[in-house]
Amino acid sequence: MDASVPVCATPPHPGCQPEAIRQAALGDPGFGRHFTDHVALLRYTPDRGWHGGEIAPFAELGLHPAAIVLHYAQVVYEGMEAYALPDGGAALFRPQENARRLQRSAARLAMQPVPEPLFIEALQALVRADRCWIPTGPGAALYLRPFLMGTEATLGLKASSDYLFCVIASPVGNFFGPGAAPLRLWVSESINRAGPGGTGFAKCGGNYGASLPAVAEARREGCDQPVFLDAVERRWVEELGGMNLFFVFADGRLWTPPLSGSILPGVTRDSLLTLARGAGLKVEEAPYSIDEWEGDARSGQLAEAFACGTAAVVAPVGHLRHRGRDLAIGGGREGPVTTRLRAMLEGIQRGTAPDPHGWLSRVL
User: Fold this and answer.
1) Residue 328's CB: how many other CB atoms inside 10 A?
2) Nearest 5 degrees, angle CA 115-CA 121-CA 126?
3) From residue 157, how far is each of 75, 153, 160, 297 by CA, in Å?
4) Alpha-carbon gap, residue 153 to 135, rounded angstroms
5) Distance between the two ends of the chain, CA-based, in angstroms?
6) What is the DSSP-derived secondary structure letter of residue 204?
7) What is the average per-residue pLDDT within 180-197?
8) Best label site of 142, 171, 194, 281, fewest CB within 10 Å?
9) Burial track 159-182 (b if 16+ CB lie within 10 A, e otherwise)
10) What is the pTM of this model?
11) Does position 153 have pLDDT exceeding 70, yes or no?
12) What is the pLDDT of residues 64-119, one digit of tens each?
């Protein structure tokens, strides 16, 4: 991977966007609305293996109309962030875990996996090339979207022989917007996100495309996200449209649904479990039904709930809507355990707290 592409600086090189546009994007990044000046590219063919790694100008990708990704959805991706450090450097957070999850996702869709060293090298090279796009505002980061897709041109129903691995980057702020209120969740009963033997554990585009009607349904009901139940009994809580769920009980227990094969194994989820155990919290990974959730919310036994993921980090849940009922959780406010765990995680990610687990991978 050639990371020698000039860094955006003064004076800017021809591949950079105008300084005024970059500064405007960094000042109000939103989420996924602005993109940096370069992409990382890597290709696979059976005769050459992985080859042609490069940092290239950000541009549209040319695809054959018969590319397998367009017809049979052979595409998997990751979501992660590069964080500005107090000393002016930048770091990735547990990139090895994203590399391994992409490999598992690829295997589920019969795709050629990207070797972990190449995955990490591509991320590092892109961050170095577009270092001037890393925002430094509160809660801001450079979001990285590595994705892998089948590019062989054929209408035959088969796994692609050729692949393109690409990484793009986008400066982002808070996923739900600055000062966002605790989430309002809508229980989806007519749409399933995943089922046994399916692709729930894989981060593939089809999972998210299939969830969009439920997302729209939740918004029509005045909610932020749908809650998906299991596909067999339609009873057990699984996850949101793009985040894992946690519950905090009045007796101090921290509870999250177990990874059953239909739930995405979130890197943020795993990190929070590790931090919670280290902080002395009693952690349980066990099934939790929607009826139990409602009952515990009414009784006050459920003190807090929160969602977590790369983009949102930790987002408190304030209300649950189900079958015409609107239940407040913890008085509809963020609870102390939620606040504490978020602070612990963000402190490590942003280099303002000790990193006892060696999760930060310095790039700059």
Assistant:
1) 14
2) 130
3) 15, 11, 9, 48
4) 39
5) 16
6) B
7) 93
8) 281
9) ebebbbbbbbbbbbbbbbeeeeeb
10) 0.94
11) yes
12) 999 999 999 999 999 999 999 999 999 999 999 999 999 999 999 999 999 999 99
